[in-house]
Specification:
The protein is of the alpha+beta class. Helices cover 31% and strands 21% of the residues. The protein contains twelve helices and 21 strands. The radius of gyration is 26 Å and the shape is globular.
């Protein structure tokens, strides 16, 4: 038998043929998070790949084209891209068991219970979640649990719905759905383009998924069980908006966002292109070469997205004129503009006042025993998508290769020589908090001319490449800026 525990999936049961005098315990454990961390360490260095749509991805695109429609107020109404012949069995009993476990957890944490109830009440009050009635449609119930993100300035608690929970047929809702292709440009490309604008702006879409309605024929596939207090009867609800945790949600949300731009009657080609190219999920990173152009762009993009119920918020810019304009336009809207000068921009920290990137190194206390597992966890906390910190991060990659060659297990101790070097290095990493890298590359100025200079080298231990922008201004001034590096 298998059971999902706090340690992951656990395999247990009787062993046929085992001798009575030799009791044994067998277990199988797969650390997906560790595997993903190792993969991400090298994926950041890969160049973007030209992708071609698979049959499933093409199906999702065609399915959206032929099934989506718009409500009278402009919001998109979408259908889930269901696979043929993937049966869903009973899932309510498992959802009820999950709710009872959740209630025991909430009973031990009063603050968590209040925040959870508040989140669910908001879903009901906004009519994003409705009481479910008897239906002839196929149903599926999603377990749900809280995720806490204290760094968020808007929603610190988010309820996540588990559409991967198996029904009695052995299939989950996510098993029965096509996922859809990656439609937006990669993070690296968006960040590089963000650095080319003299005046830049960031924002995100408030509750992006929940601005898109799910067709009534599929809403019963997004059912949950809930009650605000254990003394009340358990009620069945259904989510009538695109829901986080459903595998097709990302594609449906991004496709609706981009279709909004294509349907727009605004007539501003630049604003349409920004929506198509400068969004990474719900995050906007864009800009312009002049203050006037930036002000107009902000207005046009907002107008287009508002046609489909998408509201941009948490605006931030290095243009004081734009900040003042946004503040005056929305004095009563919470979090409409970012108060802090340090803004999170796709994993980087952008200081809008000085218009530069800064870096945080959040290393915990070093473990008493430095194992291979602990080393990877420690080394992968430094997120550097543009390679601006490559001279520091390449050291940990080389040491990790040395560790790998020793064939030590994940929980085995690494050699003392590498451990000493790493502990000394992680102390030095704290100095990166004082590093500032200009966001703007100095390009896109009238009368200027920019050259790209690329240097590459290799040794027995590593190889790397770095790119700079050398810009000559009309007055003879020359600026050089680090664009990116790969190691």
């Amino acid at each position: 038998m298998t059971q999902r525990t706090v340690f992951g999936w656990t395999l247990f049961g009787s062993l046929h043929g085992a001798g009575p005098t030799a009791p044994r315990l067998q277990s199988l454990h797969c650390d997906v998070h560790l595997e993903r961390a190792l993969t991400r360490l090298w994926e950041l260095e890969e160049a973007p790949q030209k992708t071609h749509l698979t049959y499933e991805e093409r199906f999702c695109e065609d399915h959206f084209d032929t099934t989506h429609r718009r409500a009278p107020i402009g919001r998109f109404i979408v259908e889930l891209p269901l696979k043929p012949d993937v049966p869903l069995g009973d899932s309510r009993d498992l959802a009820v068991q999950n709710l009872l476990r959740l209630e025991r957890r909430l009973a031990r944490d009063v603050d968590l219970r209040l925040r959870y109830n508040e989140f669910m009440k908001e879903l009901i009050d906004m009519n994003h979640m409705q009481i479910a009635s008897e239906t002839l449609n196929q149903t599926y119930y999603m377990p749900h649990h809280p995720v806490i993100k204290e760094s968020s300035i808007t929603t610190k608690l988010r309820v996540v719905f588990n559409a991967s929970a198996k029904s009695s047929s052995g299939n989950s809702l996510n098993d029965a759905l096509f996922v859809g292709p990656q439609l937006q440009q990669d993070l690296y490309t968006i960040l590089i383009r963000f650095r080319t604008h003299r005046f830049a702006v960031t924002a995100d879409i408030a509750k992006m998924y929940r601005q898109i309605c799910v067709s009534s024929k599929h809403a019963d596939l997004q059912r949950i069980v809930w009650r605000s207090d254990p003394s009340l009867p358990i009620q069945d609800f259904r989510m009538v908006r695109v829901t986080y945790g459903v595998s097709a949600a990302s594609h449906l949300a991004v496709r609706s966002l981009q279709q909004t731009a294509r349907y727009s009657s605004n007539g501003c080609v630049r604003a349409v292109n920004v929506i198509l190219k400068d969004f990474y999920m719900d995050d906007l990173l864009s800009g312009a070469s002049s203050k006037e152009e930036l002000l107009l762009l902000q207005q046009r993009v907002s107008e287009i997205l508002r046609e489909s119920g998408f509201e941009l918020r948490k605006w931030a810019s290095n243009c004081a004129q734009l900040n003042a304009s946004i503040s005056n336009a929305a004095e009563n809207i919470s979090h409409y503009i970012v108060d802090d000068k340090d803004v999170h921009a796709l994993g980087l920290i952008w200081n809008t006042e000085g218009d530069h990137f800064t870096f945080t190194v959040s290393l915990k206390q070093p473990p008493v025993s430095l194992t291979k597992r602990a080393f990877l966890s420690d080394a992968s906390t430094l997120f550097d998508p543009l390679g601006l910190l490559a001279p520091a991060t390449i050291k940990s990659k080389m040491w990790f290769q040395d560790i790998w060659r020793t064939r030590v297990g994940w929980d085995g101790l690494i050699t003392e020589s590498i451990a000493t070097k790493w502990l000394e290095h992680r102390i030095e990493l704290q100095q990166l908090a004082h590093l500032k890298v200009n966001r703007w590359l100095g390009t896109e100025v009238s009368g200027s001319f920019t050259q790209l200079h690329v240097f590459a080298d290799a040794s027995e231990r590593a190889y790397s490449a770095v790119m700079y922008a050398r810009t000559s201004q009309s007055d003879g001034t020359i600026t050089v800026a680090l664009i990116s590096s790969k190691t």
